[in-house]
Amino acid sequence: MKKVGMVMLLFASLCCAQESGSFQPASTNVWGADYPRVDNAGRAEFRVKAPDATKVKLNFWSGPKLDMVKQPGGFWTVTTPPLVPGFHYYTLVIDGAEVADPKSHSFFGGGKDASAIEIPEAGSTYYSAQDVPHGQVREIWYNSTVTGTWRHALVYLPPNYDTQTKARYPVLYLQHGAGEDETGWIRQGHANFILDNLIAAGHSKPMILVMAYGYARRAGQPLPDLTGKPFGSPEMRQAMQEMVAAFEDDLTQVLVPYIDSNFRTTADRDHRAMAGLSMGGTQTFQVTFDHLDMFSYIGGFSGAVGVLGNQKFDVKTAFNGAMADPAAFAKRVHLLWLGVGTAEPLMMLAGITKLHDELSAADIQHVFYQSPGTAHEWQTWRRDLNDFAPRLFQQGAQ
Amino acid sequence: MKKVGMVMLLFASLCCAQESGSFQPASTNVWGADYPRVDNAGRAEFRVKAPDATKVKLNFWSGPKLDMVKQPGGFWTVTTPPLVPGFHYYTLVIDGAEVADPKSHSFFGGGKDASAIEIPEAGSTYYSAQDVPHGQVREIWYNSTVTGTWRHALVYLPPNYDTQTKARYPVLYLQHGAGEDETGWIRQGHANFILDNLIAAGHSKPMILVMAYGYARRAGQPLPDLTGKPFGSPEMRQAMQEMVAAFEDDLTQVLVPYIDSNFRTTADRDHRAMAGLSMGGTQTFQVTFDHLDMFSYIGGFSGAVGVLGNQKFDVKTAFNGAMADPAAFAKRVHLLWLGVGTAEPLMMLAGITKLHDELSAADIQHVFYQSPGTAHEWQTWRRDLNDFAPRLFQQGAQ
Question: Which of A156, B205, B309, B312 would bridge with A209, disulfide CB 3.0–4.6 Å?
Fold first, then answer.
């Protein structure tokens, strides 16, 4: 029976992924896939079947771009030099078509389901599943009066949320980057395991994470017609600002009340934080500074303040003067946290470092964290969260 | 700043998916993707950029295989004839490389993250998000003493689970098919929306769904060496039976107790059901008939009893004689439910119909459901669940 055949073939592939020397199948592979595989030095070996192709390239988004070499049997292979530990997006370019590697799981990034490979970091257990109590990640759908659509979000609840039915928890709103979606912090970032481990070690207070979908269009708002408008044009900039404003309204007017109604939160600014990576960092600054009555902890992970709209940043006048009085600001905002990877593109590294310098010069209390050797990638943001979360909800009324 | 560019480009793609005549972007697309698109007749139009390819094919797994045609600008396109409504897996074959369509979301099927397109079914709202109370889907991780690994499962909790803190609920264990995983019933099947809608209409009792990972290898069990063993060989068959046995032990010895400890279930056989599609149906029959002390409702969705091991099915002796006495069986098993799509491969359709005939001839009380015009695909299984769930937990002690 044909069905038996399929079951057996799949089983055979499941059961038989083999090690080869020091190379082992990557943890990001689909089950049973021998490739891609990684060795102890962080080298990765890739293989794809493309029997009739004339050119196949391996394209790391933050890393090497390599030509693959045709082997007998229609396979193309390549081995990378040692890669930085962490989670690296990549695609294959097969005769000009940029596609995902069928042997890798896909992760939503760059506006599509892209491939990625996890390069283990020796000694780092903080973002993997350990034998500690685990929280649960929930999917929620809420009907947004702002966008007029059902919106999907993920919610991490700490261990014992279900059993300690009188307990109330603070909330961290945690945003993905451009091209990613609400699944990124769990699938790519392992935010749930990071919090599980921090909470088990007593380093973080138990908290709820809310991961929202970072794009929005206001109900009834027509699609902007950007035909023929050059990149960076006022029209495109305005359309983008409208999107961020719709997101801000959805988050503050619909999602936060929904979370506070449906989960046992402590619903005040002392127990509400927001952070985001890259575009999510920019959104975080806009949302939190517009709503300091709602948020008192603010994190920007490789997220450039001032990128949005390209305005010149001035500590005294930025965000309607929220930082004009450093002492008042330090009292009001319990934590302002900036992070960047030292291997990020120079403009990002320089921009965030400059922001840090300006804040320091103006006596604005904040934390500046540099992730050694990591790029505009998830390993930076995992480290960011691991540094940021323990600082939350330690001040103000508990 | 480079980052601004990326954000803006992504935004531009987000905001500007356009309709074209009666063709509309498919609901399964990544955001902003104009293609694939579907018209009212169920025709679908595909487009992929592969400028240097010499041959590109569109490959529906249960549907047409079509050559795509090269257009100016490096794009390849094709329009299908009208497709059956529902969720159809497909891949693109670019110069011999079988890959996912970068414009479609990926869904785990066929042992990889594959593309799929949703063809709307006119008038069918039962599997989409309606304005009714929504349950939540939770991700859980449990440490399995059977497999020696952390295992991931999804759990649907009905609306009001959090607020009706004294209520206890029956549980349906719901399994995916071969090549799929524990995410299938939510991502592909929309089981959460099906239950939301059934519960809101009063057609189903509120229940918990548990969707487990259907593959397992016992802790310490070595990888079977199937090198040189022909397909369907006794060695492969044995290895597969070991996998199913490990899954059975994990489900009955670890997962069920975990669920009963961590959720407010009614933990007895009258309030426990199991169903599965295809391979999951086969697993369901094995697990439930081995454990009639635990389960009293049984569903096989295109899941052939007897496929596993290819044994000849005999009502009198099957499953250790559980059906030997039809009256006793009807009293013990509250529901035995079989479903198949009329457009499934003949062997599947004939096999399940024959099982139905044999059960009828032997006076074994059961339900036989045929899904009109659908193949070995998710539209069949959505309909199955929609027919099956309302029949659950209506008998026995409530």
Answer: A156
Residue of A nearest to B106 (CA): A113
If asked whether residues A64 and A148 sit together in one domain, one would say no
CA distances from B269 to A38, B273, B311, B326, B391 (A): 46, 8, 28, 19, 15
DSSP run (H or E) holding A193: helix A191-200
Distances (CA, A) of A335 to A260, A285, A320, B4, B114: 22, 12, 18, 26, 43
CB B16 within 8 A of CB A243: no
As a whole number, mean pLDDT of residues A385-394 equals: 97
Is the same domain home to B291 and B373?
yes
Q: Suggest the residue from B10, B20, B24, B75 to mutate for an interface test with chain A (most A CBs closer than 10 A).
A: B10
Identify whether residues B256 and B227 lie together within a single domain. yes
The beta-carbon neighbor of A3 closest among B103, B129, B304 is: B304
**What is the reported pLDDT for B309?**
41
Query: Residue B343 is part of a domain; what is its CATH number?
Result: 3.40.50.1820
Residue A232 has its nearest CB partner, among B8, B237, B239, at B8
Q: Give the nearest chain B residue to A130 (CA atoms).
A: B150
Tokens 């690994």 -> residue: B149
pTM (2 d.p.): 0.91
Residue in chain B lying closest to A225 (CA): B16
Strand-pairing partners, residue B299, are: B275, B337
For A100, which of B53, B102, B310 is closest by C-beta distance? Answer: B102
Asked if residue B45 is part of any domain, the answer here is: yes
CATH number at residue B33: 2.60.40.10
Q: Which of A84, A119, A154 is the last residue of a domain?
A: A119
Comparing CA positions, the residue from A298, A300, A291 lying closest to residue A353 is A300
> Of B94, B231, B236, which has the smallest distance from its Cβ to A97's Cβ?
B94
**Last residue within a domain, chosen from B93, B119, B145:** B119
Report the gap between the CA of A43 and the closest CA in chain B (Å): 23
| pLDDT by 10-residue block (mean), chain B, 398 residues | 44 47 92 93 97 98 95 96 97 98 96 96 95 95 94 96 93 96 98 98 98 95 78 80 94 98 97 97 95 97 64 81 94 97 92 92 96 96 98 74
pLDDT, tens digit (0-9, with 9 covering 90-100), for A332-349: 999 999 999 999 998 889
Count A/B contacts: CB-CB distance under 8 Å.
253
The number of distinct structural domains making up chain A is 2
What range defines the domain where residue B241 resides? Answer: 136-391
Confidence of residue A239 (pLDDT cuts 50, 70, 90): confident
Please report residues of A whose CB lies closer than 8 A to that of B53: 53, 94-97
In a domain, B349, yes or no: yes
A56 CB neighbours in chain B (<8 A) are: 97
Structural domain includes residue B8: no
A97 and A164 assigned to the same domain: no
Q: What is the pLDDT of residue B396?
A: 52
Tokens of B276: 């599965």
